[in-house]
Amino acid sequence: MRQAGRYMAEYRALRERHSLLDLCRTPDLATEVTLQPIRRIEVDAAILFSDLLLPLEPMGVRFDFVKGEGPTIENPLRSEADLARIRRFEPRDALSPVLQAIRQIKGELAGRVPLIGFTGAPFTLASYAIEGGHSANFAHTKALMYGSPAAWHRFCDLLADMAADYLVAQIEAGVDAVQLFDSWVGSLNAHDYREFILPHTRKIFERLEAYDVPTIHFGVGTGAILEQLRDAGGDVIGADWRIPIDEAWARIGPDRAIQGNLDPTVLLAPIQRILAATDDVLARAEGRPGHIFNLGHGILPMTPLEQVQALARYVHQQTRI
Fold first, then answer.
1. φ/ψ of residue 94, rounded to 5
2. Active-site hit among 2, 78, 194, 251
3. Among 7, 11, 128, 193, which one carries the catalytic annotation?
4. End-to-end Cα spacing for the chain
5. CA-CA distance, 175 to 45, in Å (whole number)?
6. Which of 7, 25, 51, 165 is the catalytic position?
């Protein structure tokens, strides 16, 4: 999950002077924010600081972050004609500041921990572009998906191509692993996922097979579609906190690693409850190879840093061989 954020005082200090997009688009700032958690928390990998919406702008979908509301799309895509206007781009040019940040971060890390790159998956990027921001029911997205399936598939095929190109560019810049975030895909049932999303997500992972880097596939609220996520691809499948990790792993299959799955809100609890919940995740994983202990989603802004530090130390203590 994203490591940096408002739970860290040094991040808040930067945000007082710079917008979120400035942090993402300025290599020196993106490098600093990526390294902040590495200096303070005993994590086993660094995660590139960026935003999954960045590829939308060079495709012709302008957006900004509105305080208190999150990302807002300037002109949401609501028709077949809107979808047809989306253009391809070359990530090595359009997103070169991100790639430069990767090179700088790798230099600063000096092999201390690996670096994970990422991008957004087709459904999540499409949903942001169509809904115009966060959504409770994805009505506009599903209306286009059901009503104009041919246009939908053309759009998602383009998004898949751009996502794959972007991840390849990140690999070339030096990331050690890549993660595909499908934050909103849990709004789909298994049938719709197979029909409207799986072919496009699978295309991304098939493209990455030529590169010797681990791939992570993560979604939120995906308890109903874990098997479909597995079929779409990824060496590691993420599971959030809504399903016990042993049940999720049984459905995903023993041939995949699994990432998860402590509820992020548990980090707001007293330390003994945090440790008990952590013990439950570890006990269910049974020390099997391929378990990446992680939160089931991102760290909440009000989380005390000391709680995150204690969690990382405890996991290392309990799993050290």
1. -70, -30
2. 2
3. 128
4. 25
5. 11
6. 51
Structure-token pair, residue 187: 């709004």
User: Any catalytic annotation for residue 235?
Assistant: no
62 a catalytic residue = no
Catalytic residue check, 51: yes
3-state secondary structure of 263: coil
pLDDT (tens digit, 9 = 90+) per residue, 49-59? 999 999 999 99
Residue 197 CA: distances (Å) to CA of 26, 65, 200, 244: 33, 27, 6, 25
As to burial, measured by CB atoms within 10 angstroms (0-12 exposed, 13-18 middle, 19+ buried), residue 112 is: exposed
Q: Domain 11-238 falls in which CATH fold? A: TIM Barrel (3.20.20)
Number of residues in the chain: 321
Q: What is the maximal distance between C-alpha atoms in the chain?
A: 58
Catalytic residue, from 15, 40, 194, 202: name it.
15
Q: What's this model's pTM, rounded to 2 decimal places?
A: 0.96
Query: With DSSP H G I counted as helix, E B as strand and the rest as coil, what are the percentages for the chain, rounded to 5?
Result: 55, 15, 35
The DSSP annotation for 230-243 comes to HHH--SEEE--TTS
Residues 158-199 pLDDT 10s: 999 999 999 999 999 999 999 999 999 999 999 999 999 999
Please count the other Cβ atoms lying within 10 Å of the Cβ belonging to residue 287: 10
Cα–Cα distance measured from residue 252 to residue 26, given in angstroms and rounded to the nearest whole number: 38
CA distance 271 to 289: 27
* CB within 8 Å of 181: residues ≥ 6 apart: 52, 118, 119, 120, 121, 124, 218, 219
**pLDDT at site 3:** 86
Q: Where are the domains of the chain?
A: 11-238
